[in-house]
Amino acid sequence: MDEIRALADMTIRRALGFAGLGVCVVMLALSFDLLLSLRAGGQLSALVCLALAVGGWTAPRRDMRRTELWTLLAGTGAAPLRRMPRAQIQMLLAQVLRERLFWHAERAGLTALALGAAAALVALAEFLFAGGGAGQAG
């Protein structure tokens, strides 16, 4: 079970690495405006979170033989799974994949929340220090 979980994490994290690279590139491209950069990063991270959650919700209905996890598991020759019926293997893989996708979605959601909070703090600082405060005259 730990081997399946490790392989599932590896496949998810590989995809998240590319998604994170895309988010970082967009944020870097918008770095001329810190607030815009943080907002874009938060929204893109929320989109990644949503994609992971949808993947977790649909995992039990997917054919696991068409996933990267199945290919990697077949390449390792996992001995305990050879004795199990194929339907039971598919159910086990779907359960593990669902669990790991939701775990990673939670972390991506926390990242989106942190970027959103940072954007709110920057917006508040801009408001207070750029003449938006009510106590200033003129």
TrEMBL record:
Keyword line: Membrane, Transmembrane, Transmembrane helix
Transmembrane intervals: 12-32, 38-59, 108-130
Highest taxon in the source lineage: Bacteria
Protein name: Uncharacterized protein
Lineage: Bacteria, Pseudomonadati, Pseudomonadota, Alphaproteobacteria, Acetobacterales
